[in-house]
Design goal:
The chain is of the alpha+beta class. 27% of the residues lie in helices and 20% in strands. It contains 16 helices and 23 strands.
């Protein structure tokens, strides 16, 4: 017998209604679509200057310029997390999609997907008429080829599922997995599984991108500045596309993003900083789209280096007053972290026990008792073995809260004699060094609910064989809980297993959970169709337009 997969929801949905008031502000003002940008700051982009000089009216079409502190290293969806930008930039789509209430529904497939009773075999029906931008049909055979290519070539695919066989019969796609996969539709919504035409030229995906099914196609990508220009897919399968072109300008300089929106260089900006968002509130010239997200700002601690000592890790956590930082330095716009999963979910924020709450006095005592002393009189402690204790804290500024958290941690640790040296890098460098384990501490905001469920994130970053666990922590009990979670279908049982795994992470002092961000998109009032969603990768669509 088969059972139809009901749309799966996570409990984060309980607060989405608060934020999905969505566009908090609107007005009747606005600027011209003839805009560009000086990417400045983090990129010093010369191509942004060229974009600024373009004349939309003379080019005969509607053009939008979006500023962002986040971008991809390549246009290859299988490289690291670059698939997010295939979807964000509008040239990629997936078989399923995460909705605003964190349920999952069909996108390129219909909603009639179903699993066998053992959850090992799933059947999907491709929608009629779906086509790639080159006109090739995206039927079950094309989807089969795409998934097989991804599983063979994407390192991260092993963190999701392992197919034993994939069969295609007309519009019917059947995936049989090595193990039970009760949330396979969730996993197929991750942009890693962007549908690409594998029969097209795949020789330079990094710079030219794949042939996808989205409303836009790649026009150009500058591998140095990371500026990406997409243009209208004239043969989009789902209808007419309102915009002719979108220019995504990358800079991690928050001042450049804010001023660029104010002076007309940008028509919209992704994630204006908490210190600047007030400039656009109660202003009829701008709309603000806000939403709660599944993001948690992590502070990874590399146990292959000096932070292998749990006493040192505990002291660092206990000296950081996350409540005060969020209230005062982040202007109350972030919730202080405690657990891996956001406080807005029912994954245990209020019931799990944090053994490392703020306690500066105890942090000092831990270090004293363990033999961390300032032996050379420079104001900073050395290790019990006399080794210099200077921890590099790696971060990027594309997420504004990260610099605040790193600098606040540095200041707090200095008060108890721990030296921390902040190191700001571009996003791609931080991502690369995370994967390679080349850091002492590393701050990164990550969507823990990227599949509307935390399993994938927990496997990827915390399981012993996770593709992004390069920091040396391994725990058989945690791995066993995750193995059980992987094959468990009952939502309530899954929730309890997630809580159990979270408590292990807390007890082992594995990671700092700094805060839970609220995402935003700020745009001119004459712009519509740009969205800030909990998934955080559906930015533009065929209805995105500037009047």
């Amino acid at each position: 017998m088969r059972r139809t997969m009901r749309r799966m929801k996570t409990s984060l949905a309980i607060i989405l209604g608060i934020f999905l008031m969505g566009s908090a502000l609107s007005g009747c003002g606005g600027g011209s679509s003839d805009t560009g940008s000086d990417a400045g700051g983090g990129t010093g982009s010369p191509s942004a200057e060229a974009a600024k000089g373009d004349d939309t009216e003379n080019s005969g079409g509607r053009r939008l310029v979006i500023g962002t502190g986040q971008t991809c290293g390549t246009l290859d969806p299988m490289e690291a997390y670059d698939g997010w930008y295939a979807v964000r930039f509008g040239f990629g789509q997936t078989l399923t999609k995460m909705n605003e209430d964190l349920s999952i529904s069909g996108w390129l497939v219909k909603d009639d997907y179903a699993a066998t009773d053992d959850n090992k075999t799933w059947t999907f029906t491709l929608r009629d008429g779906v086509a790639f931008s080159n006109g090739h049909v995206c039927d079950a055979a094309a989807a089969k080829a795409a998934i097989e290519y991804i599983c063979e070539n994407a390192k991260r695919s092993a963190d999701y599922f392992t197919p034993v066989s994939i069969e295609a019969d007309g519009q019917t796609l059947t995936i049989t997995c090595e193990e039970a996969e009760p949330i396979l539709p969730n996993k197929l919504a991750d942009p890693l599984f962007t549908m690409i035409d594998t029969s097209a030229d795949m020789s330079d995906l990094a710079n030219k991108g794949p042939v996808g099914t989205g409303p836009f196609v790649v026009k150009s990508f500058d591998s140095a500045t990371k500026e990406c220009v997409v243009e209208k897919n004239e043969d989009y399968w789902a209808g007419d596309v309102k915009l002719d072109e979108i220019d995504f300008i990358y800079t991690e300089d928050q001042t450049t993003l804010t001023m660029g929106l104010q002076n007309g260089d940008f028509d919209a900006v992704y994630n204006i900083s908490m210190t600047d968002i007030g400039l656009f509130e109660d202003n009829a010239d701008y709309n603000i789209s806000r939403t709660a997200s599944g993001r948690t700002t992590h502070g990874f601690m590399n146990q292959n280096r000096l932070l292998k000592d749990e006493i040192l890790r505990r002291a660092i956590l206990q000296v950081i007053d996350r409540e005060a930082i969020c209230e005062h330095q982040l202007n109350g716009q972030y919730v202080a972290g405690k657990t891996l999963l956001t406080s807005a979910s029912d994954y245990g924020y209020d019931e799990l026990t944090d053994p490392n709450t703020f306690d500066k006095e105890n942090a000092e005592k831990l270090l004293d008792d363990a033999g961390y002393e300032d032996k050379d009189g420079d104001g900073f402690r050395e290790t019990p073995d006399g080794e210099t204790l200077d921890l590099e804290f790696l971060y990027y500024t594309g997420r504004p809260e990260q610099q605040v958290m790193v600098e606040a941690t540095q200041a707090a640790c200095q008060e108890i004699g721990i030296k921390i040296t902040p190191s700001v890098q571009d996003t791609q460098t931080v991502v690369d060094r995370l994967s390679a384990g080349e850091y002492d501490m590393l701050c990164m905001s990550i969507n823990v609910l990227n599949c509307a469920d935390p399993e994938n994130h927990m496997n990827t970053y915390f399981k012993s064989d996770g593709s992004n666990n390069a920091y040396g922590w391994k725990n058989k009990e945690f791995d066993s809980v995750m193995d059980t979670l992987h094959v468990t279908a009952d939502p309530n049982e899954r929730t309890e297993l997630v809580k159990e795994a979270e408590q292990i992470l807390l007890d082992e002092t594995v990671c700092i959970y700094f805060c839970y961000p609220v995402m935003n998109f700020v745009m001119k009032s004459n712009v519509s169709g740009i969205t800030s969603t909990p998934a955080d990768y559906y930015w533009v669509n065929e209805d995105t337009v500037i009047q």
